[in-house]
Design goal:
The chain is α/β, with parallel strands linked by helices and 229 residues long. The chain has one domain: Alpha/Beta hydrolase fold, catalytic domain (Rossmann fold, 3-Layer(aba) Sandwich). It has a 7-stranded mixed β-sheet, sandwiched between helices. Helix 5 crosses helix 6. It starts with a strand and ends with a helix. 39% of the residues are buried.
């Protein structure tokens, strides 16, 4: 797993972000700029690239020093966060993802996942991004924060996630749980109906017009956190 300190200024509170599959720090940098303009005060640590699910020892020690940690996870990061050894988490929000990421009723249909893995390429990547963003206009906006990674590297990460899913099962026992799920009604990756099933019994915020990529609707991290206040 790769990590990046987006903000590290001695706050007592850490915002721990688990990005989606295939991403890098560019989405985090975009969110940081917008959130700082809105007065964000917490430190922020971003996690991405789930070819490994281990935090570096030094990062783990630094994160454990914070008095309070809030976790926000998007897409495949929702599952990855639960299978990563973390310091105590005070509250956690899942956005457009589940603890059953490859599942007929609670995640991505296995045949769709397998087809994506088998055919992923530089050409199919743009089609996936358009589906993720919800349309051509949104895709054009996403280009300014799209990850600077090759399709081959993203495919390798997806294959690693497949192997880790087979080894780990759906939900590892942890000392924390997700307090809230944010569900996009226009999500074409983790369909809204699948998310409803996966988060039964967990408080939910449903945003009818939000696609899989949530950061056009939520322009700051503060707006995400408002969902559980």
């Amino acid at each position: 797993m790769k990590t990046a300190w987006l903000r590290k200024e001695g706050s007592q509170e850490l915002l721990l972000l688990f990005n989606g599959w295939g991403m890098d720090r560019r989405i985090g940098d975009h969110l940081l700029r917008q959130s700082e303009l809105a007065g964000l005060s917490s430190d922020i640590l971003l996690c991405y690239d789930y070819r490994s699910l281990e935090l570096e020892a030094g990062v783990m020690m630094e994160a454990a020093r914070y008095a309070r940690i809030t976790l926000v996870a998007w897409s495949f990061g929702v599952w990855a966060a639960r299978h990563t050894e973390l310091p105590p988490i005070a509250r956690a929000i899942a956005i457009n993802g589940t603890l059953f990421p490859v599942d007929d009723r609670k995640g991505i249909a296995p045949e769709i996942f397998e087809a994506t893995l088998a055919t992923y390429s530089e050409g199919s990547r743009q089609r996936f991004y358009r589906r993720m963003c919800g349309g051509r206009e949104e895709l054009a906006l996403f280009e300014s924060m799209a990850p600077l990674r090759t399709a081959a590297e993203q495919q390798e990460e997806l294959n690693s996630l497949k192997e880790q899913l087979h080894r780990a099962g759906a939900a590892k026992s942890a000392l924390w749980h997700y307090n809230h799920a944010i569900i996009g009604g226009r999500d074409l990756v983790f369909l809204a109906e699948q998310q409803y099933h996966a988060w039964r019994g967990v408080p939910q915020t449903v945003i009818a017009d939000m696609p899989h990529f949530p950061f056009f609707h939520f322009t700051t991290l503060q707006e995400v956190l408002e969902c559980i206040r």
